[in-house]
Amino acid sequence: MTEPWLVVIDPQRVFAAPDSPWGSPMFGAIVDPIRTLAARHRTIVTRWVPAVGAARTGSWNAYFEAWPFADRPPTDALFDLVPELADLADDTVDATTFGKWRALESVTGPAPELLLAGVATDCCVISTALAAADAGATVRVVAEACAGSTPENHARALDVMGLYSPQITVV
């Protein structure tokens, strides 16, 4: 078996900044664990970027009505990687969806072993983990390297992902 891929999900200003409506109060605590993991693994960093124009369909229209502050071009600085994690990537993947599996598979190939870290445990991490496991990937979610929208939501998301053992393991 090959070494697992470390996938650092969405370490972006929009999820790290304390003044952002989507900023995680836990973000600062995951920087060092992510850097430690990245020193030992092939690393993919993902970015969530908004779809624009005709590319935005269905429920995403209502989503941006609820969160108008994020309705910006994908090149807006709000979606930049945070400086303290911007240098980690062997590969970078952008996606307009919470789950990153569809975009990741083109880099990892089918049914890889993944270590997931990043933000938010209760949104993009769980969405990626479930889709990847459903496609046959072996997923380990590194709890101390993930940040939730709140500590309570982080714990709830980890509990849900733990229900998917042995396809998803929380470590």
TrEMBL record:
Keyword terms, alphabetized: Hydrolase
GO MF terms held by the record: hydrolase activity
Pfam families referenced in this protein's UniProt entry, alphabetically: Isochorismatase
Residue stretches making up the Isochorismatase-like domain: 5-162
Highest taxon, organism lineage: Bacteria
Protein known as: Nicotinamidase
Organism encoding this protein: Aeromicrobium flavum
